[in-house]
Design a protein that fits this description.
Chain A: Keywords: Isopeptide bond, Ubl conjugation, Ubl conjugation pathway. Chain A: GO terms for molecular function: ubiquitin protein ligase binding. Chain A: This is Cullin family profile domain-containing protein. Chain A: One of its GO terms (biological process) is ubiquitin-dependent protein catabolic process. The complex is a heterodimer. By secondary structure, chain A is mainly alpha-helical. In chain A, helix 2 packs parallel to helix 5, helix 15 packs parallel to helix 18 and helix 19 runs antiparallel to helix 20. Chain A is elongated. By secondary structure, chain B is mostly helical. In chain B, about 60% of the residues lie in helices and about 0% in strands. In chain B, helix 6 packs antiparallel against helix 7. Chain B starts with a helix and ends with a helix. In chain B, about 25% of the residues are buried. Classes of the chains: A mainly alpha, B mainly alpha. Chains A and B meet through helix 29 and helix 30 of A and helix 9 of B.
C-alpha cells in the first residue's frame, strides 16, 4: 500500500469539503482509501495529517476572512457554522477511520468533530489577531451605538461573544466588557463635567442619565450590568458628591434655603446609592443647620453662662421648634437619613441638665406660672427627652423637690404628681420611685398631724407640726443634732410617743437644719414699754433665741457648748440675727470683725422694732461658696453613682456573655447606660480594673484583651 | 545546713530561718541582701514570706536546685541568672515576686516596695527605670496584682517607641498614663 497516494486523494477530498467545493471522489472510494490506511497501521499518520489540514485551512483561509471582514463577529459565527458542517462531512468520509482507529484509542486521540472544534477554538477564537480584530470591531460598535442610541447590534454581539467562550468569560471580557466599561466611564465623566456648574441642574440631569442607562442596558449579562452600575455610581455620584454638597450655585445649602424639595429628594436618593453616602449627607446637612441656627446657638450659650434658666429653656424651646419645622419640611420620612439628621440635631441642642432642673424647680414653685402648668410641663418634657445626662438632672431634681416639699414652696401636690408621672412615662419607675415616696411621706405626715392634733387637742401648749421623712428616700445628708429648748423637746417627745403608738421598730430623729418656729418675743424698751412681736425663725435660730430666757449674755463659745449646734451653722444663724438688715437684728453682738469670733458676746436687741407684728427672720442667703460646695457635693455623688452603675452594667454583661473582648465590653456598657448618661471609656476601663482586683473578672491567660467572668 | 541558720535567737521564729539567720547565711555566701540571686533562691524554694525559710521549704528547695553543700549553694547563687533565662521561667519568677513581696492580709503591694522589687528584678533596663521615675512622680497608690502582671506583658510586647500601643486596648489605666508620660517627656 502506498500511504502517500491514499492520503493524497483523501486530502483533496477533505480540502474540497472544507472549501465548500464540489466533491469529485465518491464516498466509497474514500472509504476504501481510509480502510487501506488503517489496515496497514498508518492510522496515526493519518490522524496527524488530518490535523494539519484542518490547521492550515483555519489559519490560511478562515482566519484572514474573519479579520478582513467588516462585520467580523458575524463572519466568525458564519465561518464556524460552515466549518462545523464540514466537520460532519469529513467525519462521514472517514467513518471507518473514526470507528476503528480513533474509537479504540480514545485516550490519545480526539474524535474528528471534537478535534475540529478544538482546533477552531485555538486557532480562531483564542487567536490574538482575531481577538484584536474583535476588539476593534466592538470598540467601533460601542461608539456608534452610543451616538445613535441604538443598542440592538451591541445586544446581539455581546451575546455572541459570551456564548463563544462556552462557559469561559475570557473572550467576552477581553473583547467586549473591558472596552465597554472603559468607554462608558469616559462618557459618564464627560457628562458629569458638563453639568457640574449648577448643583440643582446636575442632580436632575444625572439622575436622568442614571435611569436611562439602567434601562438601556437591561439586556446586558448580569455581571457586566452590575459592574456598569458601579461605574455609573462612581463616575456620576461618588466623584462629584463633595463638590455638589459644597457648591455655591445650587449646592445643598442653596437647595435647603430655597426650599428646592424636589431637587433635595433627588440628591438624597443619589447619595443613598453610594457607600457611606449617608455620612456625607448627614454631615453637610448638620453643618448647614449649625450655620443656619448659629445665632440661636450663640444666644443659647450666652444665656447658659448667665444662669438665667427661664430664658434658657424658652430659647431652647424656640430653637427646637425651628429645627422641628425645618426637619419636618425636608426630612420627614422614616428613612435612615431623616433619623440620623434628627439624632444629630438633638446632640446639637444638648440641654444643660442642671439649668433645666432649675427651670423645673421654678415652674413647680408657688406663684410662678399663671399659665397652664400642664402645658409648661408638656413642653419641658420635650427638652427632657433631649438630655444626654439624665442622671445629673435626676439628682438635682430630687434635691429641689425635697426643698420645695419641706419649705412649703410647692405650688401643688397635683402638679408635682403630674410631673412625676410624665417622668415615669419617659424613664420608668426606677427614676421616680424615690420622688413618689417623698410625696407620700409628706401626705402621710399631714394626715398624722391631723390625727395627733385631734387626740391632743387641749393638752398642747405648743402648736406642733411634724413632717416624718423616711431617711432612705430623701436626699438629706449629715444630720447634726443639737440641744433643743425644753418646751420644744417636751412637745417633740409627746409626738414621739404618739408616733410609736402607731409604728414600732422605728427611730425618730429631729433634723434641726429644717423646720420653722414662731416665737413670741418681748422687747423691753425705755420707759418700761414692752413691745411684743412674733418672730418666725428657723429651728436653729429658735434654739439660740430661747437661751436668752435663761441669761442675758452669752459668748459665742458658751452658745456653742450649750446648744451643741454645729459651729458653721451656729455662725450662720447668729450672723443672720446680728449682721443683716436692721429689720432683722434681733440680737446685738460685741465684736468688730466682720466674722464671728469665740469671744463675741451676744444679747437681745431691745431696740429692735418693726412695723409688722410678725417678723420673718431670714437665714442669710448662702454665700456663693456654700452654694458651690453643695453643687460640688452633688456632682461628686453623681460620679460615685455612675461608678456603681458602670460596675453593675459590666457585671451584668459579663455574666450573660461569660467572656468578651475589651472593645466589645466597652461598647456594650455604653449601649446599656446611654439612656441615662454617656460613660467615658477611660472610666469604664478603671472600673474593669477594679472588678479584676475584686475578682469578679479575670484576664485571659493568652489574650490580654479578653476578659472572663468569674462566677 | 538548715540547722546552721535556723532558730536564731534574735529571730524568735522556731523551726525557721528568720531575718537574722538569713543575714548570716547571705554573709557566708558573700552575697548582698538586695542581690537578685536571693530572690531567685526564694522563688526556687517557693518561700511564702519575705526573709523567712521554713524547714520544708528549705529541704524541698535544696532538692529542687540539687544543692547539698555550701559550695554548691554558692555556685548556684553565682549562676542564678541562668535559672530565669527563658521567658517562661522569667515570667513565673516575676509573678512569684509579687506574692512574695506582698504582706499577707493585703491585696496590693505598696508603691515603695514594688519599686524596690522592680529594681532588683530588672537589673539594668532603661524602660523599667523610666517606669520607676514615672511612678515616683505620680500619686502614691499601691500596685495591684493585675498591674504587676500586665507590666511584664507590656515590656515584652510593646515597642520601645510605643508605635504599636493602643490606649483603647485593655491595658490598665496606669500604663496608659505611663505611655503619655513618656511621649510628653520625649
Amino acid at each position: 500500500m502506498d500511504y502517500g497516494n491514499n492520503w493524497r486523494l483523501l486530502k483533496i477530498q477533505i480540502t474540497n469539503i472544507l472549501n465548500n467545493e464540489y466533491i469529485h471522489t465518491s464516498f466509497e472510494t474514500c472509504y476504501q482509501h481510509a480502510y487501506a490506511i488503517v489496515l496497514h497501521k498508518q492510522g496515526e499518520k493519518l490522524y496527524f495529517d488530518l490535523e494539519e489540514v484542518f490547521k492550515r485551512h483555519l489559519i490560511e483561509k478562515v482566519r484572514p476572512s474573519i479579520i478582513n471582514a467588516s462585520d467580523s463577529l458575524n463572519k466568525l459565527i458564519e465561518a464556524r457554522k460552515e466549518f462545523y458542517d464540514s466537520l460532519r462531512l469529513v467525519r462521514d468520509t472517514l467513518c471507518y477511520f473514526e470507528r476503528i482507529f480513533i474509537n479504540q484509542r480514545r485516550r490519545h486521540f480526539l474524535h474528528i468533530i471534537n478535534l475540529g472544534q478544538y482546533l477552531f477554538n485555538t486557532e480562531i477564537i483564542l487567536n490574538s489577531n482575531v481577538c484584536d480584530r474583535m476588539k476593534m470591531v466592538m470598540s467601533e460598535m460601542i461608539e456608534s451605538s452610543r451616538k445613535s442610541e441604538n443598542w440592538e447590534e451591541l445586544k446581539a454581539s455581546s451575546k455572541i461573544l459570551l456564548e463563544l467562550g462556552d462557559g469561559n468569560r475570557k473572550i467576552y471580557e477581553e473583547c467586549f466588557e473591558k472596552i465597554f466599561l472603559e468607554k462608558s466611564a469616559e462618557f459618564y465623566k464627560s457628562k458629569s463635567q458638563k453639568y457640574l456648574k449648577n448643583g440643582c441642574e446636575f442632580v436632575k440631569k444625572i439622575s436622568e442619565i442614571l435611569n436611562m442607562e439602567e434601562k438601556f442596558f437591561h439586556f446586558l449579562d448580569p455581571k457586566t450590568l452590575s459592574k456598569l452600575k458601579n461605574i455609573l455610581i462612581h463616575e456620576l455620584i461618588t466623584s462629584n458628591i463633595q463638590s455638589i454638597l459644597n457648591m455655591e450655585h445650587g449646592g445643598i445649602v442653596y437647595m435647603l434655603e430655597n426650599n428646592c424639595t424636589k431637587e433635595l429628594n433627588i440628591l438624597h436618593s443619589l447619595i443613598d446609592r453610594i457607600p457611606n453616602g449617608l455620612n456625607f449627607d448627614v454631615s453637610s446637612i448638620v453643618k448647614y443647620i449649625r450655620v443656619r441656627y448659629s445665632k440661636f446657638l450663640h444666644k443659647l450659650n450666652e444665656i447658659l453662662v448667665s444662669n438665667n434658666f427661664i430664658d434658657y429653656v424658652e430659647s431652647l424651646l424656640d430653637l427646637k421648634n425651628e429645627t422641628d419645622i425645618f426637619i419636618k419640611k425636608f426630612f420627614n420620612n422614616k428613612n435612615q437619613l431623616s433619623v440620623k439628621v434628627q439624632q444629630n440635631v438633638c446632640h446639637l441642642l444638648k440641654p444643660d441638665p442642671q439649668i433645666f432642673s432649675l427651670y423645673i424647680d421654678h415652674s413647680l414653685k408657688k406663684n410662678s406660672h399663671e399659665n397652664d402648668i400642664f402645658e409648661v410641663i408638656g413642653k419641658a418634657m420635650d427638652i427632657f427627652k433631649l438630655l444626654a445626662e439624665k442622671d445629673v438632672f435626676e439628682k438635682f431634681y430630687k434635691k429641689h423637690l425635697a426643698k420645695r416639699l419641706l419649705f412649703g414652696k410647692t405650688s401643688s401636690y397635683e402638679n408635682e404628681k403630674h410631673f412625676i408621672s410624665k417622668l415615669k412615662d419617659e424613664c420608668g419607675i426606677s427614676f421616680t420611685q424615690k420622688a413618689e415616696a417623698m410625696l407620700k411621706d409628706i401626705e402621710i405626715s399631714n394626715d398624722l398631724i391631723i390625727s395627733y392634733k385631734n387626740k391632743n387637742a387641749d393638752k398642747n401648749e405648743i402648736d406642733l407640726n411634724v413632717q416624718v421623712l423616711t431617711k432612705s428616700y430623701w436626699p438629706i445628708s449629715d444630720i447634726y443634732s443639737c440641744i433643743l429648748p425644753t418646751s420644744a423637746e417636751v412637745a417633740f417627745n409627746k409626738f414621739k410617743d404618739f408616733y410609736f403608738s402607731k409604728h414600732s421598730g422605728r427611730t425618730l430623729t429631729i433634723n434641726p437644719n429644717f423646720g420653722f418656729a414662731d416665737l413670741k418675743a418681748t422687747f423691753y424698751k425705755e420707759n418700761n414699754i414692752e413691745e411684743s412681736k412674733i418672730l418666725t425663725v428657723t429651728t436653729l435660730q429658735m434654739c439660740i433665741l430661747m437661751k436668752f430666757n435663761e441669761s442675758e449674755f452669752f459668748t459665742f463659745e458658751e452658745l456653742l457648748n450649750q446648744t451643741k449646734i454645729n459651729e458653721k451653722d451656729l455662725k450662720r444663724a447668729l450672723e443672720s440675727m446680728t449682721m443683716g438688715k436692721e429689720s432683722q437684728k434681733v440680737l446685738i453682738r460685741t465684736g468688730n470683725e466682720n466674722h464671728i469670733e469665740n469671744a463675741d458676746i451676744f444679747s437681745v436687741n431691745d431696740n429692735f422694732t418693726s412695723k409688722l407684728n410678725r417678723v420673718k427672720i431670714q437665714m442669710i442667703p448662702a454665700k456663693n461658696k456654700k452654694d458651690k460646695s453643695e453643687e460640688n457635693e452633688i456632682f461628686s455623688k453623681i460620679n460615685d453613682d455612675r461608678k456603681h452603675e458602670i460596675e453593675a452594667a459590666i457585671i451584668r454583661i459579663m455574666k450573660s456573655r461569660q467572656k468578651l473582648i475589651h472593645n466589645e465590653l466597652i461598647t456594650e456598657v455604653t449601649k446599656l447606660l446611654q439612656r441615662r448618661f454617656l460613660p467615658d471609656p477611660m472610666v469604664i476601663k478603671k472600673r474593669i480594673e477594679a472588678l479584676i482586683e475584686r475578682e469578679y473578672l479575670k484576664r485571659d491567660e493568652n489574650n490580654l484583651n479578653l476578659y472572663h467572668y468569674i462566677s | 545546713m538548715f540547722k546552721l541558720y535556723a532558730d536564731d535567737p534574735d529571730d524568735n521564729l522556731p523551726g525557721k530561718i528568720g531575718p537574722n539567720g538569713m543575714f548570716r547565711l547571705l554573709n557566708d555566701l558573700k552575697i548582698k541582701p538586695d542581690d537578685r540571686s536571693v530572690l531567685i533562691l526564694a522563688w526556687k524554694l517557693n518561700a511564702a514570706t519575705q526573709c523567712e525559710f521554713s524547714k520544708d521549704e528549705w529541704i524541698q528547695g535544696m532538692k529542687e536546685i540539687k544543692c547539698d553543700t555550701m559550695n554548691e549553694l554558692t555556685k548556684f547563687m553565682k549562676n542564678s541568672a541562668s535559672q530565669i533565662k527563658d521567658p517562661e521561667s522569667f515570667k513565673q519568677f516575676y509573678n512569684f515576686s509579687f506574692d512574695y513581696a506582698k504582706p499577707l492580709r493585703t491585696t496590693g503591694l505598696d508603691l515603695p516596695t514594688a519599686i524596690a522589687y522592680w529594681k532588683i528584678i530588672f537589673v539594668k533596663n532603661q524602660r523599667v527605670d523610666k517606669w520607676i521615675s514615672f511612678l515616683e512622680k505620680e500619686e502614691n497608690r499601691g500596685v495591684t496584682k493585675d498591674e504587676w502582671k500586665i507590666f511584664l506583658d507590656f515590656l515584652n510586647t510593646v515597642k520601645e517607641d510605643f508605635s504599636d500601643y493602643d490606649p483603647e486596648d485593655a491595658w490598665p489605666v496606669r500604663i496608659d498614663d505611663f505611655v503619655d508620660f513618656c511621649k510628653e517627656s520625649g
